[in-house]
Write a structure and sequence with these properties.
The chain has about 160 residues and is of the alpha+beta class. Helices cover about 45% and strands about 25% of the residues. It folds into two domains: about 55 residues; about 80 residues, PH-domain like, CATH 2.30.29.30. It holds the Pfam family bPH_6.
């Protein structure tokens, strides 16, 4: 394993679903906006151009909400690991990581830290199957390489 090896991981299936849903939502709200015209019923109100733009704006904001789920990412190299989840980002050196876990039935992998905390990595989702397993294996290789360098340094080789 070389010192320059790095790993970049992003979920695949959720990105496809979210982008498709976001596009569909904008299209549906745009079509609804074009159908808003004329009186609102028996009352005195009427739909105007501003109401149409507001509907399109609601579709865009909803689409941005869907795209928030495409944010998770994990990047790792010989120095450490950087995890970006839906909310929050973490940059950890390998020294604080005890192991990389992907428990049976868990929705995503997690980092087990030396202070007994678990840091979820939403970028490695069970729905991605082999892609997630390969990502966990790559992270474990990087962690083991770091542990081996620590052991070499301790023995003075």
């Amino acid at each position: 394993m070389s010192e320059t090896e790095s790993v970049r991981l992003r979920p695949r299936r959720i990105r496809v679903v979210c982008w498709g849903s976001a596009i569909a939502l904008v299209v549906v709200f745009s079509l609804l906006a074009t159908s808003l015209s004329g009186p609102t019923g028996d009352g005195y109100g009427t739909f105007q151009r501003g109401d149409q733009f507001a509907m399109i704006g609601l579709g865009v904001f909803g689409a941005l909400g869907f795209l928030l789920f495409t944010r998770p990412r994990v990047e790792a190299d010989a120095r450490g690991v950087r995890v970006r989840n839906l909310v929050g980002s973490y940059e950890l050196p390998w020294e604080v990581v005890r192991g990389v876990r992907f428990d049976r039935g868990a929705p995503w992998a997690s980092l087990e830290l030396h202070d007994d905390d678990l840091l979820p990595m939403m970028a490695l989702q069970a729905a991605d199957k082999e892609l997630a397993v390969d990502g966990v294996r790559a992270l474990r290789r990087l962690h083991q390489a770091h542990q081996a360098r620590l052991a070499e340094g301790a023995t003075g080789r």
